[in-house]
Write a structure and sequence with these properties.
Elements lengths: L25 H27 L31 H16 L15 H9 L3 H19 L6 H6 L5 H16 L3
Helix pairs in contact: 2-3, 2-4, 2-6, 3-4, 4-6
């Protein structure tokens, strides 16, 4: 039997070429990728819930997570800031580190102080100096956390640990020094 050779160069006239779909627009491609990623994220969330359902955990406050060096105690170093308001804020920071930090009182039974209590004791009775330090501290807090913060005491009492209040007093000292206060 003779073999029949078909030419690859010429298509068979009985078959038609498949229709080429028009290319997708950028929006259509993005919508497809978004749908695929949403499905993958949903699947991963379900897998996570299934894999961790048996673990009894307590929520972690991110402010409690140590991300830097731990304070080893107050430093007996000299004042870094020559301006009076900045120096009061720096000493208030050192006072909170050494004596402790508290909420809901200027000074608690153990001698720990809130932010305003530390400023008050370090201002030495000078109400003008105390007011200037509290104003700069509130400004530093609002720069970081927005204008919804009503006062220094409300900000102090809204935290469960001293980490954020200490950081804000330190930033306020730098801000007061930059302003020459």
């Amino acid at each position: 039997m003779p073999t029949r050779l078909t030419s690859l160069a010429r298509p068979d006239p009985t078959t038609t070429a498949p229709a080429v779909a028009p290319p997708l627009s950028l929006e259509e491609r993005l919508a497809l990728v978004d749908a695929a990623m949403t499905a993958r994220l949903d699947e991963a969330a379900v897998a996570y819930e299934v894999n961790t359902a048996h673990i009894d955990t307590q929520p972690v406050d991110l402010a409690d997570v140590v991300t830097g060096p731990i304070d080893t105690g107050p430093s007996a170093g000299p004042d870094l800031y020559p301006t009076p308001v900045a120096a009061v804020l720096q000493r208030a920071h050192q006072r909170l580190v050494s004596d402790g930090w508290c909420t809901d009182a200027l000074v608690d039974a153990d001698g720990a102080r809130c932010m305003l209590g530390a400023i008050r004791i370090e201002a030495g009775g000078d109400r003008r100096l105390e007011g200037g330090a509290a104003t700069v501290l509130l400004d530093a807090i609002r720069r970081q956390f927005g204008d919804h913060v009503d006062s220094v005491p409300s900000f102090n009492d809204a935290h469960g640990t001293a980490r954020v209040p200490l950081r804000m007093i330190d930033r306020a000292a730098g801000l007061a020094d930059a302003r020459g206060l």
